[in-house]
Amino acid sequence: MIPFDLNDTLALLERTPDVLDNLLEGLAPAWLMNNEGGDSWSPHDVLCHLIECEAVNWIPRIDIILSDKEDKRFVPFDRFRNLDVMKEQPVAALLEEFKKRRTGNIAWLRSRKIGPGYNT
User: pTM of the entire structure?
Assistant: First the structure.
């Protein structure tokens, strides 16, 4: 098992937008909009989901964990919400939105100066 290191994790998280951009940018809509059938997701759907996660999931949850509030319950996460909201957005716009949100979230997390011995 690899020991957890926040800086290593942030380095991975920082690379994700560029990896997705290299993987998806410029592909034909047939590759981006189709899924495997049933409840499977297309690459477009996955991008919508990742944007939703950046907006309302992992950073708000970290904020709850680090807060001094007694109630540490998470707000339920609707992983399907953005699929309809962003269905008309082109992949290029979604890639840019994801990069913007991920960059901002990592900057916010770094600003919290979390590390060994961190106390809320």
Answer: 0.87
